[in-house]
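re: that chain from earlier
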Amino acid sequence: MEPIRFHIVTLGCSKNQVDSEGMAQLLAEQGLVPAEQPDDAQVLIVNTCGFLASARRESAQAIQELLEARRPGQVVIAAGCMAALDEHRAEIPAGVDAILSTREWPQIGQVIGRLLDIPLAPIRPNGGSPMLTSFRRARATGPSAYVKIADGCDHACSFCAIPLIKGGQASKRPFDVVREIRELVDAGVKEVVLVSQDTIRYGADLGIKHGLPGLVRLIAEQVPALRWLRMLYIYPSPLVFRLIDAMAE
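^ sequence. v structure.
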């Protein structure tokens, strides 16, 4: 029996890229095989962006193109941020076979199993907080990789839809972050980039005081083979000074 092949189209930010890698890893563990081109895949997944109207149009266009070109037997799944809000979900083209919201991507295997009527056993992710999944990082696509350390935001800025789309902040536990980085380094990665919506507040939801500076120290101690550590989405906070001290150490 030929293995089922899947193709993922990733749109939007680096956090979406990490979620797509998570989906690909979980599907590979269930025996599915990635395909370079949509024509070679039975399962087509679009990991959408819903932050801006232009991004939603791009996501809708990508889905529509796959729907128009799909052959009998192919299924199209819309995942990611565009599916998080009803008003944005309404912009997803009609005809998709399933919709997965931004934090539902770990269910991708079960969804595909139902659509294709095949037995896909649920795969337990390798940890994470109750709201944020951590997964194995056994594959590296280059010398640099993103690691998502948290998702969501607790601020209520009037100009930003992130809390509505992503929900409140949910941080990965420090040892899950360290494990992911160690796996990436073992796979040949030289540089890791920490990302989240509000990176400087990492760990606040877990009750960790000075979370990000402490995480930087822990990574340096536990993964000494990592050559470079970068961080994105660092917003103004008194913790920045503690972070600078940790980096200087």
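Helices lie at 14-29, 53-69, 86-89, 108-116, 162-166, 174-186, 211-222, 239-248.
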